[in-house]
Amino acid sequence: MSVMQEKWTKPICIEKAKLFSTRQEWNRGHNPTYSKARRKGWLDELCGHMVRYEVKPNKHTYCRCKIAASKFRTRQAWNKGDNATYQAAYKKGWLDEMCEHMEPSKTALKWTLKSLLKDAEPYLVRYHWKLANPAGYLTARKKGWLNQCCAHMKEPHGPLWTLEMCIEDAKLYQYKGQWQRNSSAYKAALRNNWLEKCCKHMTPAPPTIKYSKGYLKKTALKYKRIVDWQRNDNNTYAAALRRGFKSECTKHMEPAFKWTKELCLQDALLYEYRTEWKNAPGNAYGVAYKNGWQDDCVKHMKSGQGTDNDSLYIWQALGFYDEYELPVYKIGVTSHRLGVTRISSVADRNGLEYEIVRFLKVKKGVRASVIEVDLLKFGQQFNIGDFNGSQEFRSLSEYELESVLTIMDGHASA
What we know:
By secondary structure, the chain is α+β, with helices and mostly antiparallel strands. The chain has helices spanning 3-7, 10-17, 23-29, 31-40, 43-46, 62-69, 75-81, 83-92, 95-98, 113-120, 126-132, 134-142, 146-149, 163-170, 176-182, 185-191, 195-198, 213-220, 226-232, 234-242, 246-249, 261-268, 274-278, 284-290, 294-297, 341-349, 368-375, 398-410; strands at residues 311-321, 327-334, 354-361, 380-381, 393-395.
């Protein structure tokens, strides 16, 4: 043990912890004592007085971002003047639409038709070009060269939309949000100010309900397992999870999967490297670390990083749908040599039924995690639980799923 490690004793860690009101503040304010407490398993004891971190709902809606964008003449000005709404618009894919009134950037002025044709050439779908190079795509559209640049591309969203076609397409949907998620006709109607005519028959989307603690507890009593509550009434489950009532609401339910030393040893055998096991879904590594079983579990492992980062997957969580009845999928990265072990592992431990949509190895030299970042931009995040990997669930329309699979297939090894 080094001198520095000996320095941070438990009494010192206790005194340091008293200076902070959240774990995040302690980690940032005095990382050495925080890290020592985490390694020794003292965190729960030392953080008893602290406030739990609660994720706040996103306040940057489409309308607020649109209003913010209207105040600026360039993207750069918007980014500097109101970065929060700019970043929200970028993450949600609204940026090009909200910047149509703005002046082109200095970079855009350098684009020529020849350079844009060359830039668009590698892409088979307009959306993929737009995602990869929004500046080039926007310049082509503003200069009237878009159709010329995209002549070689497929058009998964169908023909150019007329008012009559948009009205007929809109009749297939009950809510405006459903139409927006499933059809490119919505964007055509939005661009041409046809939304009012197209959406006359639609009903308002179900309002967001503010559930009381009592109501959430009463609803939870209908179910014997957490997964049944998630699957049958995800709105109330997500509300309880978000507001910190989950433990209280689920006291009567059957206990969730619990890691024992034997199960941790069995799970560890699936991995060759410690880092790989640590990053795997299921939290077996964390349980083993906290209970002092780690040395026994990693005896067979090799030294080094060991994360292959060479395969992508997407599977459907059967029985789960968002408020617009769109199916839910899990997107992730794994090692090809492990096959579908991680998929079945995270699904089985959390009581989820699944159907694999695509599992593939990426081209040599390509990091699967880099592609995963782009894939997770599609769809809407779906709250399915609070386990490791739960942030990678997305509800996807048919078009969004098609786009995800097209990108995956484009990076697949021969």
